[in-house]
Structures are given as C-alpha cells and as structure tokens.
Here is the input.
Amino acid sequence: MRKGSRKGSALVAVIWLLAVLSILIASYAVDAHLQTRINIYLRERVAVDHLTDAGLAIAEVILTEYQNVQDASSETDLAQMQEDDRWYNEKRLLKSQGGQEVSTGAIPVDALNTEGGTVTVTIRPIESKFNINTLFAGGDANFSDLWMNILALSGIPKDYWDGIVDGWCDWRDTDGTKTGDNGAESDFYSQAYQDFIDGRDEERNKNYKPKARDGEIVDLEELKSIKGFNEYQEKPINADAILNGGVLNPSEDEPDQIVITNGLSKFFSVYGSGKINVNAVKDPIVLAAIPGVFQGDNPENEDPDDIAEAMTNAMQIIELREAMPTNGKNPLIASEDDANDTGAYKDFSNLQERMQEVGLEIQNEASTYFAFQPDKFFEVTVVGQSFGIVHKIVAIALVQDGKVRYLRWQEDP
Here is the structure.
C-alpha cells in the first residue's frame, strides 16, 4: 500500500511539474512574441522618425530657397528646372501664389524602396490673423480703429469693449499708467492674486496673475488672465467665451445669458508683422475687420448694414482669389500675359481693380494692413508614415537670414 501510495504521489508531482513547466514555457513564448513585436515596433518607429527628420529637412530647403527660385518661361525650361531641383514646384508655387498653402503630397523618401514609408510636408504662411502684440498704443498707430472693427464683428456687446481694450493695453504696454477707466496695472493684479491665495473671493480672482505682463504674450490663452476678459463692473464673466466663443455670463438666468458667436481667437495670433497676407487668409471675418474693407463710419454703432457690407467685401476678396485661371496655363510657368483677374493678388492695385470689376470697392486705407507675399512665419506640418505607424510634427517656423528657427513644436498633437 505504501509503495502504491508513493507511486501515486510521484505521478501527481510529475503532473504538477509538467503543468508548471507548461506555464513557464507558455509565458516565455508570450514574452518572446511580445518582445518581437516591441522590437518590430521600435524598428518601424525609428524608421518613421527618420522620415519626419527627412521631411523637416525638405521643409527647410523650401523655406530658405523659395524666394530666390527662378521662373520658368516654357515647358522645356520648366522640365529642366524640375530636373535640376527636386523641390522646384513647391518653391515656385509658394512664391507665385503669394503664400497659399503648399504640400509635397505623400512621397517615398527612398525611391528604390517605395514600400519603406512616405513623408508629407505642408507649409502654410501664418500671417492670416492680426498679431495682437502690435495692437496697443505703443504699436499700431490705428490700433483703436482695428479693435473696434474686430469687436463689432465678434458679437461681444459694446458695453464690454472698453474693459477688454483698456485691460489689454495695460497688460501689453510697459508704462505703468492705467489706461482709461477700465484698465488695470500690476497693483490691481497683485491685490487680486493675494485675495485669491488668501482665500478671499477665490472665484472672482482665480484667473489673475501676480502682475501685468508688460510685454508681448506668446500664447492667446494668456488673455484669460486680463481684467477685461474676466469681469465687467466688478462681476465675473467667462473669459473663455470672449476668446473662443460661448456664453459670456453663465451665472445669469438663461433668458439673460449672452452668447458670443465669434471669439477673438478667430482674429488674433501672436506671430507676424501685423499685416494680413491676403493670399493666405481663409476666414473672411479677418479681412472684414480691416479698415477700408469695413467701411462703417463708427463701428461702435454696431450697424448690421455696415457689418454685412464688410463681410460681403471680404468674402468677395477670397472668392476672386480662389477663382481658377481659364486660360489653361500651367501655374508653374510665368509669362508676360498672365491674367491678372484670377489667382493670387499681385499687389493692392490688382486687388482694387478686380474688386471694382465686380462692383465693389476697397478703400485706400486698407493698403496699410495688406501683405501679398509671406513674411517670415510659417506653420510646418510633417507626417511620416510606415507600416501603419504615423508620426506627425506641427511646428511654427521663423525664417530669417537664410535660417529656420522653430518657435513652437508639437509631436503627434
């Protein structure tokens, strides 16, 4: 009996041992499979990273050389230039179209291995909004007129305008003197900030910083820290609604709530010369704010007819720009008889002439705010793709003195 019992115990032990070994082997197999997949992913990820690196190099070549590219005068001349310069088309279009978006399309970096992945490079000038850093008493001489036009188009009630503009001017300028009746210098912010951290009136003061910026801002989100964006007649309001649209006074009963249709982020950027590249802008409401496009005598009246006229002018500007040439010519080939009534605007006179042809007029004062070629700020988007793995980079590039410097950088946003 004992002998049989020992044999049974040994058999059970062997079974358990086999079971444990099976689990271990299965675990090792799973680990090996996962490690193999990780290694493959890492290898492909490195390959995709190399693709985006190549894409950035392509973007920098285009950005630093497009202004010097020579025009082709014939199909033969074009073919030779394309053979001599792989990125001739992109450079020529960026130059000739006055700064409209240019894309390489998905291209294989290794021509001998078309399945090794592709990279797409898109370049877009960003002088398509007003640089808010220029719109104060120490910047644009006509900053007040432009602010009034923007606020009229935004849908923000007139009662709030002085607080927004005065608050912004004090936040941006460096003189330490309160602007108007609704401005706020660092003494206001230091007290509000202290009230917040000490627990006094936390809700009203939660967005305030210890002092005014007294300089350029680098992100529009900072506007939410300004007095005129946060309170009206000492009552809290929704700063995000002023910036991005939404309900301005959510604490009020629904019938009394004010809805902002066009937040100020539609009009403003923190980059650019202060002018608007008419060949790059896509949203007509930005063009509508330009004095001379907006032709009302007094924007503070918020006259619906003036606003409608400004939007009509702006939409027509974009519509004429987007019209396709009817002569069938290759846009990469320049010639003396190129039509001036289609495509990118050449200059302010060309814009005025084309608007007059459709019965509309843009006043001369608008010329101060228009640009017709890219300045030096661009949004560069690079997308590398290989074996289902995608790596995307979106960057703001400053092109100056033949070099590219990145001011903002996002990966896989």
Notes: The radius of gyration is 30 Å. The chain has a mean pLDDT of 87. The CA atoms of residues 160 and 232 lie 7 Å apart.
